[in-house]
Design goal:
It is a single chain. This protein is of the alpha+beta class and 63 residues long. 49% of the residues lie in helices and 17% in strands. The protein has a two-stranded antiparallel sheet with strand order 1-2. The mean pLDDT is 76.
């Protein structure tokens, strides 16, 4: 009898962990596992401006 394999088993564990984390954390994959999100996260504290959602479809740019 064949198992599901190591790679598939690990992928399933990662999928389950991300699904469970998404209950408490907004976009856990983008925050913690996505390389592009990690690069954006490094530069977030030093940005020159900030976008803030005021109402539906309305954004404010803060210095």
């Amino acid at each position: 009898m064949m198992g599901i394999g190591i790679a598939r088993g690990e992928a399933l564990v990662v999928l389950i962990v991300i699904a469970l984390m998404s209950i408490k954390v907004y976009r856990p994959f983008c925050k913690y596992l996505c390389p592009l999100g990690a690069i954006y996260g490094l530069f977030n504290p030093i940005s020159s401006y900030r976008l803030v959602a005021v109402a539906f479809g309305i954004l404010m740019i803060l210095p």
